[in-house]
């Protein structure tokens, strides 16, 4: 293993160890909010733009994942339809609300928004929409990043009901590139997916108290076809991506 590779592994593991303690209380609150929503037959929506959209896909129809999660996918603000223009879309006001309206979010639902910088128009409007609907809004963001670039703008961290600070520096990357002023090794996706999966694992354990939780199986596992078909039949009416 090269020095730079080792540095990235060590830095990432160290940050996760720190966050395990630092986020214990807000992660517990997030798990409790999601468990409450699940028991009331509500849904959990996950949204992000740019690379943050991967957190929404991470929990969608995922082996070991909960079936009541719904990704909010906005092609123009992701990467596959044009990475450069997606950066423009996520900063343009007024684009997100009509997209969210088609998902049928209801009071008592949960909306998880991933935005490392936490100041762009898309996550801010999504948070406002969720609060107006009566959903619990959970943010995964960087306090340091948003504080450094806000310049008077509203921050996702100031709107959400529960905030999970990923502890990352402005710019995301965490490894200094020798001989330059550049940094490499972005960490928001690795940290965000770890935090999100840990919360959902906690939720699944809590729901076990009521019986078998709605957890998808890997398609290659015994009984997966029957289990997954049953879950899809139940949750497809409110999930346009199933």
UniProtKB/TrEMBL annotation:
UniProt cross-references to Gene3D superfamilies, sorted A to Z: Glucose-6-phosphate isomerase like protein, domain 1 (3.40.50.10490)
BP GO terms, sorted: carbohydrate derivative metabolic process
Keywords: Isomerase
Keyword Isomerase appears in the UniProt entry: yes
SUPFAM superfamilies the UniProt entry points to: SIS domain
Record GO terms (molecular function): carbohydrate derivative binding; isomerase activity
Domain SIS intervals: 30-209
Record-given protein name: Uncharacterized protein, contains SIS (Sugar ISomerase) phosphosugar binding domain
Species of origin: Rhizobium lusitanum
């Amino acid at each position: 293993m090269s020095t730079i590779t080792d540095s990235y592994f060590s830095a990432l593991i160290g940050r996760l160890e720190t966050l395990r303690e630092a986020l214990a209380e807000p992660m517990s609150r997030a798990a409790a909010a999601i468990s409450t929503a699940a028991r009331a037959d509500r849904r959990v929506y996950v949204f992000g733009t740019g690379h943050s959209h991967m957190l929404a896909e991470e929990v969608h129809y995922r082996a070991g994942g909960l079936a009541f999660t719904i990704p909010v996918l906005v092609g123009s603000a992701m990467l596959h339809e044009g990475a450069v223009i997606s950066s423009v879309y996520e900063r343009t006001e007024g684009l997100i609300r009509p997209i969210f309206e088609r998902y049928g979010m209801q009071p008592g639902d949960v909306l998880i928004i991933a935005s490392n910088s936490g100041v762009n128009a898309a996550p801010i409007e999504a948070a406002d929409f969720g609060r107006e609907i009566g959903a619990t809004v959970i943010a995964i963001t960087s306090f340091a990043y948003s504080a450094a670039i806000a310049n008077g703008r509203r921050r996702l961290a100031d709107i959400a009901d529960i905030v999970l600070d990923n502890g990352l520096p402005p710019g995301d990357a965490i490894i200094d590139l020798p001989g330059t002023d550049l940094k490499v090794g972005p960490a928001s996706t690795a940290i965000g997916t770890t935090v999100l999966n840990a919360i959902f694992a906690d939720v699944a354990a809590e729901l076990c108290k009521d019986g078998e939780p709605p957890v998808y199986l890997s398609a290659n596992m015994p009984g997966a076809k029957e289990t997954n078909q049953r879950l899809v039949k139940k949750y497809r009416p409110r999930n346009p991506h199933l």
